[in-house]
């Protein structure tokens, strides 16, 4: 994994776990903690490259995938805009649905000749919207779908969503009412550039899955593996060894895959959409399998509400839905495979 300053790593491994349960219960990260995240540099990771961003995401995901998601989306926004130390909200999905973005795009931008715009419309599942300093908006201009950047202002209304996963990630309904913004994509090319942003999230979901899997195995390891059943430690049973082996193999394979995808990005400045799709599909499979194993090994205690494993289990479900449905991506991956082998 990419190196990060020790101060940042310590914060992710020690401070984030202390607040993870509260964040989930209240569906919000306290303002003071958000400020601490800013001060320590978690919204200024662009200088450490994409690998550094994904390492921070992975470490935070061991205890709070919601906080990891805030870091990941802000990092993607920084890479797109060139603005550092800012929390970004990416608002693409509309109430009509998220999979077919173009057909459901109703948000409208009235733009002048210099790229300044007034935007009106509604978005749902606006990542980080509750905390955002800047909003990236996909809107319909006179030339077609276009991306815009707006600073936080009174003309943006935020309503946090009550989800069962990624609670506290600031995912919200966002209403733009005469919002002032500036074009940041080529006119009419916003859909393609929005998909580039989504690809950062899809690849990043792989890092979230790595963190969830490590968090789940660690939690089960601390609380179950030394437990004796029939005068034998649970860790001595072959079936348990195979459970850990299965997840560890998948962790190593996904880790290597992401590292290779990041290396390609560092070399040519763009992400391979196929890499991002494969990462996201693999992420859902890994995270859900790891949390299931964790719950299974804890037995009855694994079914307890309010535990780390319970939260990680809920959060793992997002990885099949967010940033593009698993089934849509399987079609995309399958099309590429058929072209390769037909």
Describe the structure using short key phrases.
alpha+beta, Butyryl-CoA Dehydrogenase, subunit A, domain 3, Butyryl-CoA Dehydrogenase, subunit A, domain 2, 52% helix, globular, 342 residues, Butyryl-Coa Dehydrogenase, subunit A, domain 1
Question: What does this molecule look like?
Answer:
This protein has 342 residues and is an alpha+beta fold. It folds into three domains: 6-86, Butyryl-Coa Dehydrogenase, subunit A, domain 1 (Orthogonal Bundle); 90-188, Butyryl-CoA Dehydrogenase, subunit A, domain 2, CATH 2.40.110; 192-335, Butyryl-CoA Dehydrogenase, subunit A, domain 3 (Up-down Bundle). It is built from nine helices and seven strands. The protein has helices at residues 6-26, 31-40, 49-61, 65-81, 190-223, 238-268, 273-298, 308-316, 326-341; strands at residues 88-91, 108-111, 116-126, 134-141, 144-151, 156-160, 172-183. Strands 1, 2, 3, 4, 5, 6 and 7 form a seven-stranded mixed sheet that branches. The chain starts with 5 loop residues before the first helix and ends with a helix.
Topology:
Elements lengths: L5 H21 L4 H10 L8 H13 L3 H17 L6 E4 L16 E4 L4 E11 L7 E8 L2 E8 L4 E5 L11 E12 L6 H34 L14 H31 L4 H26 L9 H9 L9 H16 L1
Parallel strand pairs: 1-4
Antiparallel strand pairs: 2-3, 3-7, 4-5, 5-7, 6-7
Helix pairs in contact: 3-4, 3-5, 4-5, 5-6, 5-7, 5-8, 6-7, 7-8, 7-9
Q: What is the gyration radius calculated from CA atoms?
A: 20 Å
Biggest sheet descriptor: 7 strands, mixed
| Sequence of secondary-structure elements | HHHHEEEEEEEHHHHH
The CATH class label of the largest domain is Mainly Alpha
- Tell me the CATH topology of the largest domain: Butyryl-CoA Dehydrogenase, subunit A, domain 3
Fraction in helix: 40-55%
Counted beta strands:
7
Number of domains: 3
Question: Which residues sit in consecutive blocks of at least 5 with pLDDT less than 50?
Answer: none
Strand content: 15-25%
What is the rounded distance between the termini?
Answer: 36 Å
List the total number of helices: 9
Let me know the average pLDDT: 95
The CATH homologous superfamily of the largest domain corresponds to: Butyryl-CoA Dehydrogenase, subunit A, domain 3
* CATH architectural group of the largest domain: Up-down Bundle
**SS-based structural class?**
alpha+beta
- Given the C-alpha coordinates, what overall shape results? globular
């Amino acid at each position: 994994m990419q190196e990060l300053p020790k101060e940042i790593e310590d914060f992710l491994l020690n401070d984030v776990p202390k607040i993870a349960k509260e964040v989930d219960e209240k569906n919000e990260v306290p303002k003071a903690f958000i400020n601490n995240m800013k001060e320590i540099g978690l919204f200024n990771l662009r200088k450490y490259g994409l690998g550094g961003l994904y390492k921070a995401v992975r470490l935070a995901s061991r205890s709070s995938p919601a906080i990891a998601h805030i870091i990941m989306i802000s990092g993607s926004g920084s890479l797109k805009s060139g603005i550092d130390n800012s929390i970004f909200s990416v608002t693409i999905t509309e109430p009509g649905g998220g999979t077919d973005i173009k057909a459901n795009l109703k948000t409208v931008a009235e733009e002048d000749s210099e790229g300044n715009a007034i935007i009106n419309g509604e978005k749902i599942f606006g990542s980080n919207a509750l905390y955002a300093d800047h909003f990236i908006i996909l809107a319909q201009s006179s030339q077609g779908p276009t991306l815009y950047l707006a600073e936080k202002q009174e003309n943006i209304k935020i309503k946090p969503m009550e989800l069962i996963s990624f609670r506290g990630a600031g995912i919200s309904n966002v209403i733009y009412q005469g919002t002032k913004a500036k074009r940041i994509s080529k006119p009419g090319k916003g859909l393609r550039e929005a998909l580039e942003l989504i690809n950062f999230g899809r690849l990043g979901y792989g890092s979230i899955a790595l963190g969830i899997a490590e968090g789940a195995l660690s939690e089960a390891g601390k609380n179950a593996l030394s437990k004796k059943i029939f005068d034998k430690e649970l860790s001595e049973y072959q079936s348990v060894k195979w459970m850990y082996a299965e997840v560890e193999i998948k962790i190593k394979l996904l880790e290597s895959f992401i590292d290779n995808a990041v290396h390609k990005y560092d070399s040519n400045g763009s992400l391979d959409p196929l890499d991002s799709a494969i990462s996201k599909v693999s992420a859902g499979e890994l995270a859900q399998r790891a949390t299931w194993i964790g719950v299974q090994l804890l037995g009855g205690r694994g079914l307890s509400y309010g535990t780390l494993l319970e939260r990680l289990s809920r959060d793992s479900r997002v990885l099949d839905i967010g940033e593009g449905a698993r089934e849509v991506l399987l079609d995309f991956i399958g099309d590429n495979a058929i072209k390769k082998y037909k």
